[in-house]
Amino acid sequence: MTYEIRDFKSSDIKLFNPQSAQCAVSFVNENVWEDIEKNGMSHTVTKDKETIFCGGIIHVWHGRSLVWSIISDKVRAPEMLYLTREVLKLFKRIQSDPKHARLEATTSVAFDAGHRWLHLLGFYPEGIMEAYHPISG
After folding, report:
1. Ramachandran region of residue 3, left (φ > 0), alpha (ψ -120 to 50) or beta?
2. In sequence order, what DSSP letters do the residues of 84-99 get, joined into one string?
3. Which of 47, 48, 86, 122 is deepest in the core (most CB within 10 A)?
């Protein structure tokens, strides 16, 4: 099995089906993906040439950045282990940059696997954002 990490392209989002908890990705305006591509801090991961992950960091303002990811519905434990290690490497590389002093991530309240993964990545819950998700609020 061969993994490859490359710069994110807006068209990459259409190369795979996201896990069911991330189906709202279809509501995202195409221009958003183009802007994310231009910022240069996002990546696409393929396994045996099949796209399994898109994600990265969006700088909001000095000291605050958002972490985002869309994960394929075909990803299982071995791929998640690989993705977790790679994301942690990215966090380690940027942790001393004051531009990214605060990293934020969101997941659905009902998505337990998302909560577990964010916890593994070092995040902890700070609250519930009402009406945040376009499908379930």
Report:
1. beta
2. HHHHHHHHHHHTT-GG
3. 47
In this predicted structure, what is the pLDDT of residue 90? 95
Strand blocks (E) in 48-137: 50-61, 64-71, 102-104
More confident site: 69 or 27: 69
Token pair listed for 75: 């990803």
Give the closest residue to 109 by CA, choosing from 121, 126, 91. Answer: 126
Could you report the per-residue pLDDT of 37-86, keeping only the tens digit for each?
999 999 999 999 999 999 999 999 999 999 999 999 999 999 999 999 99
CA distances for 40 relative to 5, 13, 124, 134, angstroms:
13, 15, 26, 26
- The DSSP call for residue 136 is T
Rounded to two decimals, the pTM is 0.93
CB 52 within 8 A of CB 71: yes
